[in-house]
């Protein structure tokens, strides 16, 4: 590539000059290319790798020098000889003559520099290269990365680090390359080269550790091997980036979401050094935004713009608190350095004024922010106040424009749809029974501008103010409400309130019944999403009403199991509200849809919050606070189960071994975590747990679970089995009471199912929560996230392994492959799917991978992916001719015609080729050519599917293959009913010839194929004659069709020829054989001429010659040469035909005989006459060798890496 000219003083050091002229020199780096340069070359190559000069210096370069100067200028470099030679030739052809005109050397230098810079500018313009793209050094490193590991352009390098890789007991110093989809390592030391490629999706464990010998080590584990890397300059940065990339890979396995680079990152300042790649900046920004969103419970699409140190004036204690201000698109947030002292969230939608106050010694660089609820926040000690105010002003402008736009849209929608909604409202109200009208008016909003939804929390309608014994409790509840009101007065109310240690104390004492919904919305952050999405829930309800799918069926089944003991869900009103919320969420997030336990949590949310509020609380739970908990495989709950095991090992070590032996942790954690203790604890106590959870997040659940274990430590140590342990824990949880609750006692289902033993003494929920904070409050949210990452790797890889085992178990009885072979083949099948997800394919990855489908259907591949596997695994694949045959195979295996095949279909096809007998293989080959021509597929996409349905609709499965697919199983009657027409017979012949080109018995197979072809041509002609006679008897006026086929005879002088050369040895005599065979009908040489007769007199003089070359891949690419007479034949010399060309003389394509055909029996019988073909098709296939080769092959530009690490170690 051309580079901005830089001066070079010592042009000859470590470089070898290969070409030179008066102005330019082409040089090669010592240690590269042929010869290697001896010891000096080895040393230079080693130094280049160790010191990273190989990233800065490509192995070839071009220097510019004026004759009288000692200073050289580098103007181009290249990673290959071809690339640098192209640049050299361009210079010779375009610049040399021009330079000779100049008289002044300075003018020459200026001209050359300007020309090179112009070329670079033109390239950047044509390729849309942005100014703030990666540095030249990083681009060269990316180029080297792709060249070393055979990666395509789509595989983006993120960063690379110097380190040592421990190969056995020997460290190899080199470079670790971290790309979006792979971890790679390269080392070259004194002629010894080591390459390692590990796909992130294959990593089962990634951890940073330290030993006495190796203080900083990163251990990367896969299913096959462990890899150790050490001697990092910055191990923390390397490990964090590796974690992030592995997390992206796990996310892709989990929900099929690939990586998309963020193009909206702010541009770097001109003065800032470009030390990292754009991708690295993107990933760093993502990590910071994720931490920011988690810290302040912000919506998932919020991006952090920046943060700065500052102080905040807190009026409640008259202090300036030191902390950090965070600014994002829609929020200004603050958190104190001392973690629990104070935090603040200011949505920009609430901001009215942002102004700079006067600086003073006490308050340097102050900034005042006022909100709609008349609160003013004073920040000071801001380093770059002017820039900060400008950023906030920009975001404020965007926010106000969004609000106005939403108001306009909402207004226009309401005005245009008033009539529709009023009609719906009147229909609904008229259809309801009169007895429920008063309740419904109170519970539903029947205004004409929204879908009917509950406007009150269900608890307010069913709260029974009761007799005298509850008066003390009501008094205590009143005091709680007063405490919260006083708190609001002092610390502010709503989203912008100061959140302090005092807030936490009030939460731990229990939120008043009447304030729960409001405060849950506030602390969870759901209030932000609800406020910024007005009308969203009503629209979802409207769209989802009356729709039915698997999720709605499951919802209907579970509706009456949701808190059935509560009166709110003992009538249709509460059930209807629950149905609407769950169905709306299933439509919002089809990846989750509906999962058991969601109904229990949602029913409690509906008791304390309005219907729309309950929906947004459910969104916050499922998508932010309990990530991946409620998907089809409850991955999030399994991850937190692993985290809980780690915490139990650390905090209750004396109990951990016992719990592991009993196997209790996995049982309790799922039921406790999925329902937030609602299913195992009395209702009035469990809602206190939810109070704390919405305020402090998942750490509350871990703390409480550890407290429960700690309180029962001696009972659990005495348990003999898991049943006894579960009974002990269940009895304890049943006894957890909330003495402050004003609710009437609700029978707890879990307690009704326990045995009749002595009840456990009552445990106060507030004391239990307080104890959990005292004993286990040191658990930090960031530590939990770190542990979650580690467990997520383990859980997702365990799920992937289970998927593999289930798929193999499903089809192992249907095929002759062993279990080990099926597992390896599944890994290759999945790897091909993942590779296309990384680098693109002809179909959408989300269509090919759906985790909600049965195991066998989860991974599917399209035709492009199938071609890759066909070339690697199918015995009939052979070079350039493989693609047409692969396409035919794919269309045959694709049962439902959707352009995708699953693993079973793939194995059924491969199984016939690897384990089928001669007849089965020939049937399969025959059927691939029964389908309509490939060219028709473009015009009529469904024709192949329809034709196959017609041909094989009542085919029975093969006995040898068990339950094979309907297309592959062949019924004797149906296969005899289907004939191959002339056009497909030609394709069948081409397929046979292409299959043998690299076989050991290539020559014999060519001869045998020629004999079989001639026999089949005769049979087809005979069949044509019989059918022609039959038609003539039926209709005397019927004319004979062109294209009769028969053996060459002296009488057939005006017929076309089919030349089939014998192969490489006989290529020079093929024409002679063609002439010789005309005179002899009895002695047939192996390669003979076959005559295709055109019985129509007017077409006798015209025919076509089709050159079928190994380079051609489809019917449309064949060269057609017109020949007027036999003089043309004489002029066609043998030397004009290449070694691998089959010359077929046929009637013109427009006169292909549609009545000519052969049957499967004729095809089978003809092949059985040739011993060489019989041996070829009966030859056993070494499946293990095919699999091993496929695992190790790296296709050009698109490596196929199996789950086993792809590792090469070569000696120089």
Automatic annotation (TrEMBL):
Query: Pfam families given for it?
Result: GRAM, RabGAP-TBC
Q: Which domain of life is it from?
A: Eukaryota
**Record keywords, A-Z:** Calcium, GTPase activation, Metal-binding, Repeat
Q: Where is the EF-hand domain?
A: 881-916
Give the record's GO biological process terms.
system process
| Residues annotated as domain Rab-GAP TBC | 510-697
Q: Which SUPFAM superfamilies match?
A: EF-hand, Ypt/Rab-GAP domain of gyp1p
The answer to whether UniProt assigns keyword Methyltransferase to this entry is: no
A GO molecular function assigned to this protein is: GTPase activator activity
Question: Which residues lie within the region annotated Disordered?
Answer: 1056-1106
Q: What does this protein do?
A: May act as a GTPase-activating protein for Rab family protein(s).
Q: What is this protein called?
A: TBC1 domain family member 9
What organism, scientifically named, is this protein from? Nothobranchius furzeri
